[in-house]
Amino acid sequence: MELDQNLIDAAIDQISRRWPNAEQAVAAAMYLEGGQILTSVSLDNFNAAANLCAETGAICQAYTMDRQVTASVCVSREAGSGKISVLAPCGICQERLALWGPTVQVAVPGPHTASGWSTRTLLQVNPYYWATQFTDDGHWPSTADHSW
Ligand SMILES: [Zn+2]
């Protein structure tokens, strides 16, 4: 399933369900192969070292279900303005999403687009993915390769 506005809206809806009145909040949404959507929210903790990115819950759920993630978005509601922004996946979430290969689509902020976001693949976001150095022929490691 291709990344689209419906997936962005699912993440925004997740923010509204979990934190209808919070000034600042972050949520993620992912398409699984076949079109199912998983959503999750960031886990905030007094000890910042225990915090988890919004994508983490959906990634763990997809992995638990042994399902392929095809697209991922992360959105933030900004304090003060309440403006919704698309966040590119952080480096750790890029690593987590790498389980499903270089063609996983992610939303990135796109200031030159009407929607305010655009789509990139993990390979476009991370063209020098380090783990390709550890495969026999330099290919992006498969889901099975990641499990050893
Ligand atoms: Zn992250």
TrEMBL record:
<protein>
    <submittedName>
        <fullName>Cytidine deaminase</fullName>
        <ecNumber>3.5.4.5</ecNumber>
    </submittedName>
</protein>
<keyword id="KW-0862">Zinc</keyword>
<dbReference type="Pfam" id="PF00383">
    <property type="entry name" value="dCMP_cyt_deam_1"/>
</dbReference>
<keyword id="KW-0479">Metal-binding</keyword>
<dbReference type="GO" id="GO:0004126">
    <property type="term" value="F:cytidine deaminase activity"/>
</dbReference>
<dbReference type="InterPro" id="IPR016192">
    <property type="entry name" value="APOBEC/CMP_deaminase_Zn-bd"/>
</dbReference>
<dbReference type="InterPro" id="IPR002125">
    <property type="entry name" value="CMP_dCMP_dom"/>
</dbReference>
<dbReference type="InterPro" id="IPR016193">
    <property type="entry name" value="Cytidine_deaminase-like"/>
</dbReference>
<feature type="domain" description="CMP/dCMP-type deaminase">
    <location>
        <begin position="1"/>
        <end position="101"/>
    </location>
</feature>
<keyword id="KW-0378">Hydrolase</keyword>
